[in-house]
## 1
Amino acid sequence: MKSIEITDVQAIEHCSIPIPDDGGVIVLRGSQGCGKSTALQAVQVLGGKKVDTLAIRDGAKRGTIEFDGVKVVITKSRTAKSGELAFEMIESRFDIGKIVDPQILDPDRADAARIKQLLALTGAKPDPDAYWRLLREYVDACDVEESEIDDDTDDPIELHKRFVTAMQAIARRLERASDQMRVDPAGIRKRFEGLNIRNPPVVDDIRHVYDECLRADHEVKERQKIAERQRNRIEEARIVLERKQSSYKGPTLEEAEKNYNALTDAAKRAHQAMLDATTKYNRLRDEAIVAENELRVAAVHFQAIADSKEIIDQTTIAAPLPEEIAESQAAVEKAAKLLDDAVRANEGASLLKEAEQSNFEADRKATQAAEIRNACRKAEDILAACVKLEHIRVEGNRLVVSTDRSESEPFAELSHGERAILAIREAARYVPKQALCSVSQEVWGGISEHNKNLINAEAKQLRIGVLTAEVTDDEELTAEVME
């Protein structure tokens, strides 16, 4: 049985750690500060891990770690290693302790740390091109702007996170657009309640009916105005006629004309005898002048009577009956309402059509968002495909295993011992038959005795050495192989 020899390293003056050829658990025991953690770190240094905290023991010139032809020399100024191990240190691939308990409270982040360790074990990495192909497939299908993604990272979990975050951002943009575009048709139907907005009437046809009603109503009102004016003129002419007939005291027109003619003739005759009857001539002339004035007045008077009779005798336009006026106005009001309803119904139909189109687009974007979120799940498949393990797999960015309790039991809900056993089993598939790993004192302390025995049996079956530590009352550091 080979052993790891540690001399003059920090608190360790000398410690010999047996490493069984057939594997199994080796437990470092001792009190706090005796060097258990130092011994575990020293073993990790053998596997090539850089540990800055290792130093030589006080008073020593140098410290050494030796195993199977490999020697690590530690001085105050540097650490030098010579030789190559005949078997592999699992720590050079991944840290079982971080698989069992990564010391992270958030379950998602804890599993992300575990996945990173498992990817380090398998050596697989998600292909950025696979993410790009997936992203562009959905971006092109959904006609959305492609997000800028920095894929320059060696961290597979960070790479996966960046692409999933970008796809989720696209999905959120589509979902916001869907919400903003969505319209409630019920509100439109309520606003135009009582109107046929599914098959609205043709506005131009209703407008033609309305215009005809307006024209007919205008004709009725014009007839009413003309009849009113004529009625007023007739009434005025009747008043003038009555006044003229009642107030005139002179001769009739015929009498005045006859008198005028007689006097004119007499004047003419008198004129012949003017020389003999000048006085008579002047008297008759004056009377003729008076008679002329009377004739003029009579002519005006009787012409006014004739004009009034002519107005009264004129054929008048019949005024519309009240029923006709009311019917015309009712027709206009009905046509106006029909026109208003037609305009509003067409407005409602247009809004309903826009709402339906908007909702169609909203549904399309919601579907696209769902497809993008489905792409996120496909992105998880890219990551899961890299974790090609026998017992542990990735589902929805979480580590799960199949147990007798569940087909997909979260790895984080297993006991520390169950996690450690599975981690060792997975490690055995990627390391040579002879391999060595370490489990921290804190992790080992959280494992039940039953599971510790199971881990020991598993390690022996796989021929893997598992180095760990536990606190005892012994002041001196010792190493013991579990039976």
## 2
Amino acid sequence: MGGISVWQLAIVAVIVLLLFGTKKLRNLGNDLGTSVKGFKKAMSDEASETKSDDADVDQIAKSEQSDESPSKPKE
């Protein structure tokens, strides 16, 4: 009663193929693939930039901790 059968998917695929044609579908697939590739590249660049920023913050925090070494009390 629920769900989509294989035959229904095949009929929809044939109708889409007839409406748009193979050339348009090929171009659409190519554009979609290029978009996904660009999105993945942007996400990986953002992730590496975030890791780089985190490393910089850690380095600054460590250098500040070493600068704040306890000094000898004055008498």
